[in-house]
Each structure stands twice: as C-alpha cells, then as structure tokens.
Write a structure and sequence with these properties.
Layout (H helix, E strand, L loop, with lengths): L4 H12 L3 H14 L6 H13 L5 H21 L5 E2 L26 H4 L5 E6 L4 E2 L2 H24 L4 E6 L7 H12 L3 E12 L2 E15 L3 H4 L7 E14 L2 H6 L2 H15 L7
Parallel strand pairs: 2-4, 2-5
Antiparallel strand pairs: 1-3, 5-6, 6-7
Helix pairs in contact: 1-4, 2-3, 3-4, 6-10
Length: 279
Amino acid sequence: MRVALGDLLAEGHRAEADGRDRQIAAAEGAKGECCGGHGGESTARACSMLARHPPLAAHTLMTLARTLACLCAAAALAACSTPPASPSPAAATPSVKRASPAVPSAEPGVPAYLLANEGCAIVAGGAIGSRFADAKVSAMWTRINAAVTTELHDRLVAQRYRVVKLLVPEGITGTAEQMVFESVAAQRCSRVLQVAHKVDEDAAGRFFRFDVTLFRAVPKEGAAAEAAPGMVSVVARGEFQRSYRYPRTQETFENFYTGDFAEKVLADLRASGGLEVLR
C-alpha cells in the first residue's frame, strides 16, 4: 500500500472539520494563526474557498480538497506551527546503563525468552517522538508515524518475521518507554524495533526525520536478585540505528509515500543482518 504523506496531512485536516461551517471557521482561524511572510493569508483564503465552493463533480472536488487541504496542513507544519517542545523519552533509550555485547548466561528467575538469541520483536511507533505545544500538530505527526510503522510491520509479517505491532496512542498515562517494555513482557519478545519521529529546524532548514532503532532487552547481571518479585531489570543493547531526514516542504509532503519509505527501511534492516534472529 502506498500512502502519500500529503494524503495523511489532508486527512488530518479534514478530521478537524465537520461540515462546511467548521471548515470556514478553521480557515478563518488559520488566517489569524499563521505568521506573517509565510503565505498565511493566501493559504487561509484557499481553505475558505474550499469550504464555500459550490458542489463539484466528485473527482474534481476530491482533487481540489486534497490539494488545498495539503496546503493548509503544510502551512501549519512547515511555516506556522508552534515550535516543538522537548521530545518525550524514546523507548529505545531507557535511562539505564547499556549492557555489554555479551549475552548473559542462564540465571535463575530470568525468563528464557530474554536469554535466547532468537525470538520476536515489538514494532513500536505512534506517539514516539517530537511533541508540540499545539496538540493537533502532535496528533497529526502521531498519525503519520503510525502509518509508517504499520507499513513496516506489515512487510515484516509478509516476509515471515516474528513481530508484534504496538502503536503508542496520544495522551497515555505514563511514558511511551513504559508502554513499550510492558508489551515486551506481555508478548515475551526480547527485541524492539522502534520508529521515532523528530520535527524541528536547524541551520540547514526545517525538516522531519524518522529514527529507526532495533535494540535488544538484555537482563542485567544479577537482575533477578536485584528486582522486585516477578520483575527483571534489563538494559538496552542497540543492534541497528539509522536516521532518515527530509526537508519539511510541500514538495516533500506530496512525494513522500509511506510504503516506499517502509521498503527502504526494510532493505536497510535486511542488509544489516539484524532481522535474521526474528525468523
């Protein structure tokens, strides 16, 4: 399945509007929120025009809706969005010391799945990454991350890798890290394949980036003795990490396809040899 990033942005924009009156209100609101010099007024007029336009042929209206909604969403993300707040802790970076490369030997009280070299992996995504002061923008990027994560998971399943999908939702109690490790225990998987997103800008300009990490949960030495009853302390050992950065422009949004991106990530993972333990 090939889904354009522009379609996801448009979908997010349409979800904000429920009927013509709400579309008009959203366009007027965008006119006031957009910063000067970034096309705010012209984008708002385009949104308002779509809201007020008389009925058109279905195909024409869908094309127009997609184009203008993409412009509205892209303006909010690329020019006028609130700067992202500090990213929430990523599941692949627990606040513990990294383990040594050696896999621990069998220890009483440590589950066998944590000691076995082969096993399954949690494919985690969703609300893992940059957070914005504007909850709507955060939710939009969570949906984009979830689409990318789902595409990657489905390809892994199709090629018979042992994986379980986990999409961290918006507004969870606790942290994404906690939810991921709870899933590791519940599914008896020793690895996590995490998709995190970062939306920011630097000297090179505005960008969005996906950080893909495969790591293994390794029991600490003496983990069973140190932890509370029924618990085992683990540390993360990285086995694959790659970042995929893109300019945050309308052209990128229109030409970025989640399926194509998932294929690229899958090819990189297979070339690294890190997936063989999931067969």
